[in-house]
Design brief:
Helices cover 59% and strands 7% of the residues. With 365 residues, the chain is of the alpha+beta class. The model has no long low-confidence stretch (mean pLDDT 88).
């Protein structure tokens, strides 16, 4: 046990993959800061109306100070997204946002609390190694302490466990009554996101009961499967579609974006551990040579132009982490696995690739 704690404390890993996560948190922090600014202008200062403070009145900001706090949160959010003094800005954004929540419990929401919690934890890790407008090169060293990132991962699992556990202990949700009522009300108002016929189908008692059980099972399984190497990639893929279903059917606001952004913390910290070789004289090779650098947000691939070998005639060849080489459908499966925009189609592509040996190359490139 002591050895595990020491390893947890002393873990050093590459922080490149945390850059896009930090930038997305910056966008969400800015969204909430602007929402508070709009509310201040249209509704007024919350301290002048009924509010529930968890702090002494002396620590609740005045109208003028609150306006300054909101302006600072907007500025810090922009700095976080652009990578300018990223870690201090991320920490200050989290602390100021948490202060506002403590000053008015009525503004508390699981999405806001989770955002500020993730931001605070991520600010303690090497999240400033990439996605920096001031300097596009990866700084050296690109590694840093990873214990705070592990705490953020634990927080993701806690959210899943708490949500799934609460639903499991709620008979109304477990039997499908909660979802049936929600789907029925959405169908009544003909949600623009989902056709009315689909919502009416989901509102059926048997269907809603099945969906409720699937939701509970998904959340409880995800909180564990994300930590296991054999199941992590499947859990990430399933989690994407799970949250997309929730957002489309009954809406989850920014919580879906926040959770999907935090999935980036589960990316293995191995900057450019794979190599993509492309033939610029071929159409697909030229396309990959242009698109992959733009879409490789987590730094999965090192790109190299085609090198003459005894396996000529391939547009692209992927050298995997174990140094095996693949091309064709297997190379495309590897691209969908590593590029976030293509990740939603990874599972069917990988399934198709698993039924054929075509594309395996036994000669090292």
């Amino acid at each position: 046990m002591l050895h595990a704690l020491v390893r947890f404390r002393d873990e050093i890993a590459d922080g490149y993959a945390l850059g896009p996560v930090r930038s997305m948190l910056g966008v969400l922090l800015g969204w909430y800061a602007l929402a508070d600014a709009e509310r201040l202008l249209e509704v007024g200062y919350f301290g002048d109306a009924f509010h529930l403070s968890m702090l002494p009145d002396l620590l609740v900001p005045s109208h003028r100070l609150f306006a300054v706090v909101v302006a600072l949160r907007v500025c810090f959010a922009v700095m976080v997204a652009l990578g300018i003094w990223a870690r201090p800005s991320l920490m200050l954004s989290a602390l100021l946002g948490g202060w506002v929540l403590l000053c008015d419990r009525l503004q508390f929401g699981s999405d806001r609390y989770s955002l500020f919690c993730y931001a605070l934890l991520l600010s303690l890790g090497p999240c400033d190694r990439s996605w920096r407008t001031a300097d596009s090169d990866v700084p050296h060293p690109s590694t840093g302490p990873y214990w705070a990132v592990r705490l953020a991962q634990i927080q993701v699992s806690i959210v899943y466990f708490a949500s799934g556990g609460a639903k499991l202990l709620d008979p109304a949700y477990r039997t499908g009554l909660v979802l049936a009522d929600r789907f029925a009300r959405d169908a009544q108002f003909a949600s623009a996101r989902v056709p009315r016929a689909i919502l009416e189908f989901l509102a059926r008692e048997a269907v809603a009961s099945s969906v409720s059980k699937a939701v509970i099972m998904s959340e409880l399984v995800l909180c564990v499967a994300l930590w296991l190497r054999p199941t992590r990639i499947i859990a990430l893929w399933w989690g994407f579609w799970f949250h997309l279903f929730i957002d489309v059917t009954w809406g989850a606001g920014t919580f879906t974006l926040l959770t999907l952004a935090m999935y980036g913390t589960f990316v293995t910290p191995d900057f450019q551990a794979r190599t993509l070789r492309f033939d610029p004289t071929r159409g697909w090779g030229k396309v990959c040579g242009v698109l992959v650098p733009m879409l490789d947000w987590f730094g999965r691939f090192e790109l190299k132009p085609w090198a003459p070998d005894d396996q000529p005639g391939h547009s692209i060849v992927v050298v995997r982490r174990d140094r095996t080489t693949v091309t064709g459908i297997r190379a495309f499966a590897m691209l969908t696995r590593c590029l976030p925009l293509f990740f939603p189609i990874w599972a069917p592509v990988a399934l198709i690739a698993s039924f054929t040996r075509q594309g395996d190359l036994t000669t090292a490139t």
